[in-house]
Fold:
Amino acid sequence: MSDITAPVHVPHDGTDAEARPIFTEERRILGIARSTWPGILAPIIIGIFALGFWEWIVHARSIPHYVLPGPWLIAKTLVADWGTLSGSLWITLRITFAALIAAVTVGVALAIVFTQSKWLEMSLFPYAVILQVTPVVSIAPLIIIWVGDINLSLLICAWIVAFFPILSNTIMGLNSADHNLINLFQLYKANRWQALRYLRLPAALPYFLGGLKISGGLALIGAVVAEFVAGSGGNASGLAYRILESGYQLRIPRMFAALIMISVTGIAIFLLTSWISHIFLRKWHESAIKREN
Amino acid sequence: MSAAAVLSASTDEASKPRPLVSIRDVSKQFANGTIAVRDVNLDLARGEFVSLLGPSGCGKSTLLRMISGLGEPSRGTIEWPTSPHDAEGHASPDLGFVFQEPTLMPWATALKNVMLPLTLKGANKRDAEAQAATMLSLVGLKGFETSYPRELSGGMKMRVSIARALVTKPSILLMDEPFAALDEITRHKLNDDLLKLWWEQRFTAVFVTHSVFESVYLSQRIVVMAARPGRVMADLTVDAPHPRDDMFRTSAQYADLCRVASQNLKKAIAG
Structure:
């Protein structure tokens, strides 16, 4: 049963403007619309069953914990080693977000520069592509040697992986403004800055946010991969290093704990970027609008 | 009263005051070799409502875009004898343009969309808001200031587009088949409201259409064009008084005028 709120009264002025839509409000449970609950509950129930099965099979087959620890043991390790692991998580997070911020700044700035000057785009874009297609694992050792500072090296590696989707999506977005709107801006003799501020940047926003969603995950992957490379040299302390270290010491439950922390971080970043995207687009963009039919 | 007498050819050039727009021997050839417009001569008087009527491909939209300044003629001149000119001697007339689609910014509210021309001119924000709000209520959209384009119907979006074109109080409003995509009922209503705005605000209106009925209902003058290459075939005066309303739309006079305009269009299509 939905409650139907009364339509907003509009003075009768003889136009189709009177056709104010009648909004229907869905019933909420714990502040969340009823129709979204199955989407939350179904994966949770599946997860609980899977974890139960995992715990059961570890006990039933007496699998040693250095081969496959049960979820309960992993959880206990996570709590017991929280001090060390949370410190590592903090380091990985810092690099990830610094890289993401750098990727957004450089990606958007370069995209704007490229769309203002075709010459710059033609000359520089191929190098951006080269940077993107070169596997970060293969250049990470070089970067670590050249840069010297380990945190900065990791930041550069994660940035290399994360910045391309933002650059390429934002370029596409800046060029996707409605052609007639561009003509309209010409008619009103808008300058470049006005066309950028009032037309190209807003038109690019959905594309940029799509790039941000991809880059958020990539920044984490870039940071973890670079840490693996750096970690094998023994001079890093992020979550990837904890995984390597636990592997060497056969502390498999701790390895799983660190792995879970990376996954959860990735999910959190995805949710965060999706939420940001939703906030910016919910009022006007097709992707963020619920349709009823 | 015979229809031929009602729809007569335009009167002599000499008796008219200086036109708002003077189009002389204008031709337009596109890069691919297509001649879109050939040797058009046309004067647009200040305050008149002119329709450019013709089949698709007759260059009526191209001509309209050249008048607006969005495309240069390949040959010939378009002059604005009474409008201000910039330092380089180019005319900078104050004009409004309505495209075939509403062409609104989807990320901006109706009010922000209407404000755009004022914002681009660097107008004070509060003044711009006030003027845009007034314009929105003039097109019948009071109460929809904060609505986004996606929340509006096709007809309402077109109203926003017209409000945006008129918010700078231009001396000329150029419209490129603005109501072609709308259903007939909405189109009639928008035709009536457009005429009312024109009657009250006295801008010069140039209306591109392929509908005989629409052009006769709206205009004081119909320029009939033919295709391949686009050229002017007839210049008709619609000798019926404004303001017009539904009574006019059902009158015998309207039917007569439509028949004559149709015959001219048919002749133009036949070449």
User: Anything to note?
Assistant: Residues 1-14 of chain A have pLDDT under 50 and may be disordered. DSSP finds ten helices and four strands in chain A. The first helix of chain A runs from residue 37 to 60. The CA atoms of residues 31 and 54 of chain A lie 33 Å apart.
